Amino acid sequence: MKSKWFPLFIALTLFLSSCGNQVVSEATPTPFPTPVRPTFTVQRGDITVEAKLSGRVEPLALQTVYFQINGQVREVYANVNDVVKEGQLLGELAEAQELRAKADETRRTIRRAQIDLEIAQLTLEQFKSQGRSANEVKIKELQVELAQMKLDETLESLGIDPNSPVLDALDAQVAQARVFSPADGTIIAAINVGRNVTPETPAFVLGDPKQLEVIASLDASKGDQEVKEMFEGMPVTITPDANTDVKLTGTIRQLPSPYGTGASDEGAIHVALDSPPSASTYQSGDKVTVVVQLASKEGALWLPPDAIRSAGGRTFVIINSNSGPKRVDVEIGLQTRDMVEIISGLEEGQVVVGP
Asked: By C-alpha distance, which of 256, 330, 251 is closest to 292?
């Protein structure tokens, strides 16, 4: 029995022994790549800060029309590009209906007092023509006087000067809630129905189609950042969107208040063109791009915006030094989408490590 299992025992022993002598090699781990940070070199060059505004060629604004009282616009009878005549009704407030109703009631009240006076006057004339007694005539004269006093009191209670034309005063009250064209022209701006207005709100702007200008919208997202750097008389360049090869020049004619003489809520600038319109340059209605150079500096040190960092109220960059990365505070100046002026803290040729 022993001789039967002995060879198997020997074989198993040799197998286990060989397995124990094998060296198990571990796989070499894959190293993580070291991130490569971008670098930027401080350069010297010219920096120009520009505002690019979208605009349209429109008739030159000549006159602005305002309502005389506060209210809400109920009707608009003339729209942009409509040709209007002097005296034409342009719009009215919702308050006009109430004022008309009040004026009608006022007319009736006045008319009642006027009728009483006329009856008293006619009766007096009748008594005189009939040869009535002196006492009867005197009574009728006093009745005429009372009727005249009643009419004057009625007018005064309504806020109407008894010595002024009555109907004119009533019409003037209603006219405060209506606006009329002060001259012949073309409507180049019109208020919308439902808008609340004050006597300072431009309702309609009248223009001359034979004289053109550019009205360019300000970028509302930038607040007054751009417009506060502009001034009336400032030179600009204008490029028609349909013909970018054409370069026109002009000047800012009007800015919104408080930066210029325009309305505070207009949100646009008015540009006078130096050259007249033509088939090869521009025409009324053309869309254009207005470029206003707000600031410029020649030979300035600059870096791209991605190289500049801010934290804790500090503006700084990171440079490599013998002791490792080093933070350097910088003072910046003019800024564009691609360039940031470095006023102090760095020198030309220095290399900055990006984030």
From this structure: 251
Which residues is 45 bridged to in the sheet? 300
Q: What are the helix (H) ranges across 81-226?
A: 95-129, 134-157, 166-175
Nearby residues of 116 by Cβ (< 8 Å), 6 or more positions away: 147, 150, 151
The rounded Cα 12 to chain-centroid distance in angstroms is: 95
Question: Which pair of tokens denotes residue 222?
Answer: 């930038």
Q: Are strands 340-344 and 287-303 parallel, antiparallel or unpaired?
A: antiparallel
Q: How many CB atoms lie within 10 A of CB 148?
A: 16
Strand partners, 180: 89
Q: List the one residue out of 71, 120, 127, 61 whose CA is nearest residue 95.
A: 71
> How far apart are the C-alpha atoms of 252 and 226, rounded to whole Å?
14
Contact 250, 214 (CB under 8 A): yes
What is the rounded distance in angstroms from the CA atom of residue 296 to the CA atom of residue 126?
92
Residue-wise pLDDT for 60-102, tens only, equals 878 889 999 999 999 999 998 899 999 999 999 998 887 777 7
Closest alpha carbon to 202 in 324, 14, 62, 95: 62
Asked whether the beta carbons of 170 and 109 are under 8 A apart, the reply is no
Residue 6 — very low, low, confident or very high, per pLDDT cuts 50/70/90? Answer: low
Give dist(CA 140, CA 120) in Å, integer: 7
Is the model's pTM score more than 0.85? no
Q: What are phi and psi of 290, to 5 degrees?
A: -105, 125
Burial 231-259 (b: 16+ CB within 10 A, else e): eeebebbbbbeeeeeeebebebbbbbeeb
- Six-digit token string for 227: 């417009």
Separation of alpha carbons 140 and 134, rounded Å:
10
**41: three-class secondary structure by DSSP:** strand
Which of 28-37, 105-114, 267-276 shows the lowest mean pLDDT across its residues? 28-37
The DSSP code for 30 is P
| Element housing 336 (H / E) | none
- Residue 219 parent element (H or E): none
Determine the pLDDT at residue 1: 45
Residue 23 above 50 pLDDT?
no
Whether pLDDT at 30 is above 70? no
If one counts every other C-beta atom within 10 angstroms of the C-beta of residue 26, the result is 5
